[in-house]
Amino acid sequence: MECVFGLVGNGFAIVAADTSAVHSILLHKNNEDKIMVLDSHKLVAASGEPGDRVQFTEYVQKNVSLYKFRNGIPLTTAAAANFTRGELATALRKNPYSVNILMAGYDNESGASLYYIDYIATLHKVDKGAFGYGSYFSLSTMDRHYRSDMSVEEAIELVDKCILEIRSRLVVAPPNFVIKIVDKDGARDYAWRQSVKDVTTAAV
Amino acid sequence: MARYDRAITVFSPDGHLFQVEYALEAVRKGNATVGVRGTDTVVLAVEKKSTPKLQDSRSARKIVSLDNHIALACAGLKADARVLINKARIECQSHRLTLEDPVTVEYITRYIAGLQQKYTQSGGVRPFGLSTLIVGFDPYSRLPSLYQTDPSGTFSAWKANATGRNSNSIREFLEKNYKESSGQETIKLAIRALLEVVESGGKNIEVAVMTREETGLRQLEEAEIDAIVAEIEAEKAAAEAAKKGPPKET
């Protein structure tokens, strides 16, 4: 039931992910941040097995850092995406990671980009992408309303339309979402969309 | 296939490890390197022997970052340095991955020193021919540190130190002139110490600074270094003049 989706706009890329941590019928927490800041200008929105998700994305993050210290310059988004795919591919026929990833980044030379990387090491450079049951709704909504070179406001409107669609049509829809943006000024939190805040029981 | 794993570094009858001492000789021939620890600033300065005109100086950086909060400069065999620095950088990221925390300066120093020691007690290898000066700020506490390692694998913390060419005279200067300082004063002390043995001028010195507040290592531009050198020369001249001044009064 995890929902992750994203799109590329005019000089920026936006990714949104649900924030529920689920184990069978139990909701552990509803403010789990699944979008990792890979480096100053890259975001990785991941969904899948929670252990694998954290393990794999942190592994990629540390290797991206190591490259920066060894070579004095950071990896491009394309290079990081290809590295990530390569790691998934190598592990695939031995000990696969069950993680789906949308990697968004901004490079000075090539602008904003979004990469779709699924758990069996498919890699596609895309303008919009989504994972999970929510993708049936968000992809269709984005297909209907997406235009290239949208402004941040227009893109957020579209993201909110997708969240609304997921909330109203997905049977066990996640209540809360986090939205992050990456542009020339870096990768950062944009907003949270919460329909359920943490409930504290009254003191007895 | 001949065996390449016999011990190379072995004791002499009077208890010396000559390979390690020869490695220290290699260090003594290396570039003069100075490190100073201030209250909120740490500085590394290295002598730059005349850069060939055709060489791209950016590719021959002598002061390197190991992580956002740790920097290293060394004297000795630069090729050996590359190997140690690479292993240290991997360890910095590995520590972050497994312990969810950046390394402390002492940890990474202990790691590098441990590597240097291993190569004095392993078959088929020779010791690394370099001494390192490691500076940085510990995560959370943000306390500044300066450490030195050498080919034997020993390490210790310092307020200020020098290694490489003429390190003894630089250390003497530092012992005479060190006092707790911060910011620009720390940088000036490091450069003054290095100028004791290096020809004056921005193009003969490489200086890098790390402060408690900013992340990352800042390499000083040649113009900046020239400006500080000019300040130091002016201060020296004023001190000379002051010495000669008073006796004129009768």
Automatic annotation (TrEMBL), chain A:
PROSITE patterns: PROTEASOME_BETA_1, PROTEASOME_BETA_2
SUPFAM superfamilies named in the record: N-terminal nucleophile aminohydrolases (Ntn hydrolases) (SSF56235)
Keyword list, A-Z: Cytoplasm, Nucleus, Proteasome
One GO location term (cellular component): nucleus
One record GO biological process: proteasomal protein catabolic process
The UniProt record lists the keyword Endoplasmic reticulum: no
Primary location recorded for the protein, binned into one broad class: cytoplasm
Keyword match Nucleus: yes
Domain of life: Eukaryota
Subcellular location as annotated: Cytoplasm; Nucleus
Gene3D superfamilies: Glutamine Phosphoribosylpyrophosphate, subunit 1, domain 1
Protein family (similarity comment): Belongs to the peptidase T1B family.
Family annotation (PANTHER family): PROTEASOME SUBUNIT ALPHA/BETA
Quaternary assembly: Component of the 20S core complex of the 26S proteasome. The 26S proteasome is composed of a core protease (CP), known as the 20S proteasome, capped at one or both ends by the 19S regulatory particle (RP/PA700). The 20S proteasome core is composed of 28 subunits that are arranged in four stacked rings, resulting in a barrel-shaped structure. The two end rings are each formed by seven alpha subunits, and the two central rings are each formed by seven beta subunits. The catalytic chamber with the active sites is on the inside of the barrel. Component of the proteasome complex.
Purpose: Non-catalytic component of the proteasome, a multicatalytic proteinase complex which is characterized by its ability to cleave peptides with Arg, Phe, Tyr, Leu, and Glu adjacent to the leaving group at neutral or slightly basic pH. The proteasome has an ATP-dependent proteolytic activity.
Name under which the protein is recorded: Proteasome subunit beta
Organism in which the protein naturally occurs: Arabidopsis lyrata subsp. lyrata (Lyre-leaved rock-cress)
Automatic annotation (TrEMBL), chain B:
ATP-binding recorded as keyword: no
Ranges in coiled-coil conformation: none
Alphabetical GO biological process terms: ubiquitin-dependent protein catabolic process
Transmembrane residue ranges: none
SUPFAM superfamilies associated with the record: N-terminal nucleophile aminohydrolases (Ntn hydrolases)
Function in brief: The proteasome is a multicatalytic proteinase complex which is characterized by its ability to cleave peptides with Arg, Phe, Tyr, Leu, and Glu adjacent to the leaving group at neutral or slightly basic pH.
Name of the featured protein: Proteasome subunit alpha type
Native source organism of the sequence: Arabidopsis lyrata subsp. lyrata
